[in-house]
Request: fold
Amino acid sequence: MVELEVWAEKYRPKKFDEVIDQEHVVERLKAFVKEKNIPHLLFAGPAGTGKTTCAFVIARELYGDNWHQNVLELNASDARGIDVIRYQVKEFARTKAIGEIPFKIIILDEADALTTDAQQALRRTMEDYTRTTRFILICNYSSKIIDPIQSRCAVFRFRAHSEQAMKKFIERIAKKEKLEITPDGEKAIMDIAEGDLRRVANLLQAAAAISKKIDEELVYEVASLAKPKDVKEMIELALKGDFKGARQRLYDMIIKQGLAGEDIIKQIHKEVYKLDVPDEAKVKLVEKVGEYEFRIAEGGDPLIQLTALLAQFLLLKKNMKT
Reply:
């Protein structure tokens, strides 16, 4: 099987015009690049929405084919301490750029993983080397970046991709890789990816390694996630009072299919909103789902906790009738 992430890299945009569904960000970045000058930048938003892609596109547009010589990329989740800022970043920042652009670029991916001490050191480095270096900080949660750094950056907020954008991306890959994707398979990919194009590419790659025809069954198999249909039937059995049948469905998913309790409870959370019960009941069910999700996260046995959650569904339905 081909290594995962290969397709994600293969279909990563190389130019601004290829970036999907982030026009509100791209137009502003184009203006900076046109002036051949950029401020320090902070890219924030969900995973797989094009933050790192835009950082590399900026580098390519500014430096051309020799962009590698003027760009340092660090993943802050791997190298997150103060020594990284003091040595690696400073050593790169203090040297001049090669070419006509008077500054280098340092890309700090997952910058929200930097420790507070490292961020304080980074703030000083950004001040001291502004003439020779520009920083592009990339994070999922901008609230984890200290205010002094945020105030030194132009902030760009990326949004999760729409279904239309994901569909366009899926069709593009399917055409180039000669894949046949059924409508239910396409919908399954979009439901699982939740706006993350990197995950779309990885799901398609994993599924294509098994079959050129990709349907819902195959997508959920390679994603190792609970099928919405199975979870819906399990919940309905519990609400009908068939606790034994509901528990058997749960047992099959956890023991026979090997699914994680965390993934099953997330799907239960989605299905609650689709149930044909009063809103008041949905509110109570969501509260219970949150409680049992916390128990599993704290180390509770998934089978026992999810069985207890099914019992709560059954009891709630009985209380509604009385």
